[in-house]
Amino acid sequence: MIKIDSKDRELLTLLQEDSKRTTKEYANRLGLSTTAAYERIKRLEKSGVITKYVALVDKTKVNKAFMVLCHVKLIQHIKDYVLQFEREVVQLEEVSECHHTSGDYDYILKVNVSDMEAYREFMVTKLTAIKNIGSTQSSFVINEVKYSTAVHF
Questions:
Q1: Whole domain around residue 22: which residue ranges?
Q2: pLDDT in tens, 77-86
Q3: What is the pLDDT of residues 86-135, one digit of tens each?
Q4: Closest Cα partner for 128 from 137, 136, 119?
Q5: Measured between alpha carbons, how far is 146 from 113 in angstroms, rounded to an integer?
Q6: Is residue 66 classed as helix, strand or coil in its secondary structure?
Q7: pTM attached to this predicted model
Q8: Where are the beta strands (DSSP E) in 2-127?
Q9: Are residues 108 and 82 part of one domain?
Q10: What is the CATH number of the domain that holds 133?
């Protein structure tokens, strides 16, 4: 386990806000030399604390704002069924998140499509084509009240 100090936490917060700043800008904000900031970033990357850098896309501008939380229950919880479902669901481009959960359903999927018709097509041709699904329940998102990718310290 890597030791994370207060400067690392501050740096991670800055990187999560905007990872396109220069190393010099991060250094200035942290009161460090450019080399020290660079070395901290590289250490956080190498240790796996920082896993990747991404661009966040406005779903409305790419016609994928219809969001559905789809709850999936498998027929049985045997290892082969679980692994098969997980292998197949990660291949579905409409699914942006998949969480194996406790409770009434085994998985919760976050699905982004253009509209109800596209969701129906996704369900009929892709999701329910996966073997060993016992049932599904869909909750349609009315309004996204909070959305963040940041981990706060």
A1: 6-46
A2: 899 999 999 9
A3: 999 999 999 999 999 999 999 999 999 999 999 999 999 999 999 999 99
A4: 136
A5: 19
A6: strand
A7: 0.88
A8: 66-74, 95-100, 107-113
A9: yes
A10: 3.30.70.920
